[in-house]
Write a structure and sequence with these properties.
2 copies of one chain form a homodimer.
Chain A (H helix, E strand, L loop, with lengths): L6 H7 L6 H10 L3 E4 L4 E3 L7 E7 L2 E6 L5 E7 L4 E2 L12 E4 L3 E7 H10 L1 H27 L2 H19 L6 E3 L4 H8 L3 H13 L4 E3 L2 E3 L3 H7 L14 H5 L1
Antiparallel strand pairs in A: 1-8, 2-7, 3-6, 3-8, 4-5, 4-7, 9-11, 10-11
Helix pairs in contact in A: 5-7, 5-8, 6-7
Chain A binds a DNA duplex through helix 7.
DNA sequence: CGTTGTCTTGATTACGCTCAACTCAGGTGG
DNA sequence: CCACCTGAGTTGAGCGTAATCAAGACAACG
């Protein structure tokens, strides 16, 4: 994987400018690209956890099964994301991870992260910053799942996905592809598939969201954000400049 | 704050054995102890975020307000915890933090963490491990809040608190003090205060949990864990030995 | 043209919310 | 010492959102 193909470098560049050595370190994380099919599992709960994974292309999600048979999707991963950071402190996987679309992933062992810790304080900070941003995302969804209505949950999720996609893919304008079935949406939003359908109908009647198969159109972004009580401070792109801290 | 008073050292020692230099680094995080009263705020959403805080004694919680007027409590902090890790990548606070009881906190600036990154790879790993464990906790609660019944939520929360308290305070046996009002419990569990009351009555009828004011008794731990569908792999104490990774 | 899976719509049910009245313990002042 | 107040917790009645169950629509595919 060369430097300009690297999603990781692209991702990390958001946080600070990288030296040649740092870029080389990051590129080395992606030296084992593996093709992987939609629907296949990267790993399951209980598997040994000795590696991370960068998602080079395609979408993935992590999820947990409940005893009731329900499923809760925890996170959607987009290209450039690192999968499995949460399990750094554990010897076993806590979550299943499944590909949504075909894609390419690059495995690298936990100890590679320690090399980063050893060799570059700025990269260490960026890894930490990325982890803390992911955490912010999860926290925001916790609030939404715990307290908000189906309509708010749905609006919130769609707006969040819109922002995340725009961050990596500047050319998105009010329309994007969302390769998720209603069952998967239900598992994300903590709703039943039936109610997801109803909620989309409602949002469509209100003119907030139009959906045709897997294509989503959002005529009025602000209105959608308002409907989801979306507070975007947890996704802001004006990242705290990390070099300030080193001073 | 001397070495044997340090909650941080106690906390970090769970993850790896510490050299003298590393202990000194950690002690330096706690050089500014501040007394703080129950009910007072450490900070609020929007405040500048340039510091972390170690909680030396007392309990605290972080929370968010919703437009509806509801509140969601995100995390309960116990002595030894670091507060504010999540905001490392942000310039503003994303959450309010409030003391539950009187306590002592120690502020230290973000850049102190960078010194740790610079000076000790093991400590860096431990910080990372702690962050990833906190994240696992939040994720677990996300699943619970999104999918489980009031009875399960309550049982799950109580069992989790029991385990966390036992981890730091080995002498706990089926009974502990839980200094939370039902309103606060409601804000944690995503329920109304009224329903928290009903749920405790139910658990009490079932003989699973007895509560007298702020004292909680759990006659049968396994039964409570089962009622909360508690899977304790995310709290396991057999921490992945970090030095293995450095090899 | 039938089959399959996904989505939609309708009818019924249930869990937890809201509102309101009541209990109870602790604290305060006469 | 008692009367009163306050705040937390409990209990009851009615309601609403979303779940469940079931039937039907629709598209993709063989």
């Amino acid at each position: 994987m060369s430097e300009d193909q690297s999603c990781i470098i692209h991702h990390f560049s958001h946080y600070c400018s990288l030296t040649k050595e740092e870029k080389a370190l990051l590129v080395s994380l992606e030296e084992n690209p593996t093709d992987i099919k939609a629907g296949s599992l990267l790993w399951e709960v209980g598997d040994p956890a000795k590696e991370f994974c960068t998602l080079h292309s395609g979408w993935a999600y992590s999820y947990r099964h409940l005893e009731s048979g329900d499923r809760q999707i925890l996170e959607i991963y987009l290209p450039g994301d690192i999968i499995g950071l949460r399990e750094f402190a554990f010897s076993q996987r806590l979550e299943n991870v499944c590909m949504i679309t075909d894609g390419v992933v690059c495995h690298f062992p936990h100890k590679r992260l320690l090399e980063i810790f050893r060799q570059s304080v700025p990269l260490t900070s960026v890894v930490f910053a990325i982890a803390s941003r992911h955490q912010a995302l999860v926290t925001e969804r916790l609030v939404t799942l715990a307290r908000r209505s189906a309509r708010q949950k749905t609006a919130h999720f769609l707006y969040e996905m819109y922002l995340r996609l725009r961050q990596t893919n500047g050319d998105i304008d009010r329309q994007f592809r969302l390769p998720l079935s209603q069952e998967q949406l239900a598992d994300i939003l903590g709703l039943s598939p039936v109610h997801v359908s109803r909620t989309f109908s409602l949002l469509s009647e209100e003119g907030l969201v139009f959906r045709d198969r897997h294509n989503v159109t959002i005529p009025d972004l602000k209105a959608l954000a308002a409907a989801g009580e979306f507070d975007d401070c947890y996704l802001h792109d004006d990242v705290r400049p990390l070099f300030d801290l080193s001073a």
